[in-house]
Amino acid sequence: MFTKAMPIIQGVFVFKNGATHAKGARKAKPAESFLSNSARRQLWYRSYRNHWDKIQTMIDEIQSSSYGKILDDLLAFIENSYTSQGYDGVLPTAALLTGINQIDHMSQFEKLASNIRNNTFSYVVLLQSRDGSNLKQAIETIVEGFVEEQTEEYAEEKLLRKNQLNLVVLKAWYLEKHNQMERKPNLTIILSDFELFNPSVLQDIILILNSYATSLPFVLIFGVATSVATVHNVLPYHVTSKIKLSIFQSEPSITNLNTIIDNVLLTPYCPFHLSGRVFKLLLDIFLFYDFSVNRFVQTLKYSFFEHYFEKSINGLSTIVGDEDEVLDMVNQLSTAELDQIRQLPSFRPFVESLQHPQEVVDFLTNDEHLKRSLPGMLIQVHNYWFTFHCALEILQALVSDLPKAPLGKQLRELYCLCVYGDVTELPEFKECIQLLFFLSKEEMLQKVKKVLEIVLAYVNNNDRLSMEGCLVYEVAPVEQLANGLVALSDELDAASHEQILGNVQQDQQQQQLLSPSMGRQELREKLLTAARHAKSESGVTRAVGRLVDYFVKDIFQRYLRPPNSRTVPLIELFLFSDSTSVRQHMVGTPRAAIHTALNNPQYYTQCECCVLDNEYSIVPTMPDLSIAYKLHLECGRMINLFDWMQAFRTVVEDNQTDDGERGIDPKIQARFTRAVTELQFLGFIKASKKKTDHVTRLTW
């Protein structure tokens, strides 16, 4: 009979003694697509791949340019750390302020280490806090990194044993290899997560490295996620006096994200658009979870794939070269895909707006007629996005620097408002219009100049696309918009602050009607009559009013129509609105996923042996952890380990017997012990201090 309490906090750990590196670095094989060749030839996948490759190239260029300046400065700092006079008593140290960006933080420093190896005469070691929990481990990691990096390509086994990894050996190795060289390589140590290091270990590392710096040219790089004050808080004066600190500020992740959104996503040349709900979800994940640009890009990539994979007809929204290419895609559509187009919510309002009954019948029943009409309808949607984004940037130029910025300062904030609904009906928009009337003549002319520059940029981009043989957008509305702004700005420029003559005469007549001998009732009627008349205004006030009215009625109300099924036919092909799918796949719910995996492992393993009749049933072919988990769900707050093990034994043991005196199989006991330990590691149970043969259940 098993009577003793079972320990649940013990574990077995395996250490590989004398492990060696494999000869040479194995090149990772490119991942093979899980899609078949026929699927990759379909319209939706070709459109997705063509579109995403262009987007990815643009994102890579933006990120390279944003990191380029800081990288060049950092490489120059490393190259010039040790000049002709050599060591001057302090370690050259760079503090790279990266900002809070938890997921992308390590990848940035891996790229930095690669650039230092390729572009400077330096050896590089990337030291993480997990590899430097104590001084001995940190020194061993540094020495091994420098020595083994240069020898692993030629040796099958490690050059040094673990007890030889110290700075004395590093010094001997360095002098033996480079003593005869006129210019010696620097030894660059990158501490990627500075805040996570033990302060005492960090102080000892710096002091020891400084004592060897006369013969070993160390260069330190601190990866600081917060601020430079952290360095001074962690390192006391006797340590900071041994380093010469230079500060390098990298671009904040929010600035990098705004650049990507403004120049890649929110442009008419990216026909794939996110609905307001999905776009806000992506921004919330970035702003409230991790500040990770990489995760934002991957979530955007998932949205791309989900949009094109959901319906093959969504591939019609891709960027095309000319109308002939659009016609080729339309001719490849099957009858079922044409029926999917007819079932779009925006197709019905379009058909109902047609004047001729025969045309309505042709759109609903004649596939050839629909194919002939689709290219023009698709190009019309492209033109809608062209004018929409032009008007959106005009709105940003007008309202981004207003006091308190009622509509926001960033283009992404305005985009969310404009795709949700009619932005001109918002109270914030009306407040911005009132604030525009308070601008001076010079400030309004400056804003009009910015607006004209935006319009000119759109026209020039369209001309460039025309020269490259790409699809040309309809620029006539934009040019008409610019002509109207030029005329009104000229009127404002010529206007003066003097009151208009008609208003002056009217004011004089009103003053003559008001006399001191007038009665109270008569005075009241005169004042009411005067209030009904238009107030006196100057030429500048009238010109500003006309200009603002032109912005509201002829630009914003016309071109910032929200993209919905009532306003734009076939808009669903260009707009992704499935926020539920994005939230389910990209926002982690670890507790629910763990419960599903343990309660019904067949959901993930897809094996036939673990199929359950219902969610409460238990089969012996399930993993031991799942069996123990489902048994523990049947218990109360305190769980008797012996009873729990007996129930576990009943499920997994092949030979069922009523012999209670028979001993428990040691293998079953070991399996149960491991399952219980894993449950404790996952946080479902903990050891009880009151009863040694019980555990406490922690989740309900």
Automatic annotation (TrEMBL):
GO terms for biological process: DNA replication initiation. It holds the Pfam family WHD_ORC. Signal peptide: none annotated. Residues 330-577 form the Origin recognition complex subunit 3 insertion domain. Residues 10-311 form the Origin recognition complex subunit 3 N-terminal domain. InterPro entries: ORC3, ORC3_ins, ORC3_N, ORC_WH_C. Keywords: DNA replication, DNA-binding, Nucleus, Phosphoprotein. It is found in: Nucleus. GO terms for cellular component: DNA replication preinitiation complex; nuclear origin of replication recognition complex; nuclear pre-replicative complex. It comes from the Eukaryota. GO terms for molecular function: DNA replication origin binding. Component of ORC, a complex composed of at least 6 subunits: ORC1, ORC2, ORC3, ORC4, ORC5 and ORC6. ORC is regulated in a cell-cycle dependent manner. It is sequentially assembled at the exit from anaphase of mitosis and disassembled as cells enter S phase. Belongs to the ORC3 family. Component of the origin recognition complex (ORC) that binds origins of replication. DNA-binding is ATP-dependent. The specific DNA sequences that define origins of replication have not been identified yet. ORC is required to assemble the pre-replication complex necessary to initiate DNA replication. Binds histone H3 and H4 trimethylation marks H3K9me3, H3K27me3 and H4K20me3. This is Origin recognition complex subunit 3.
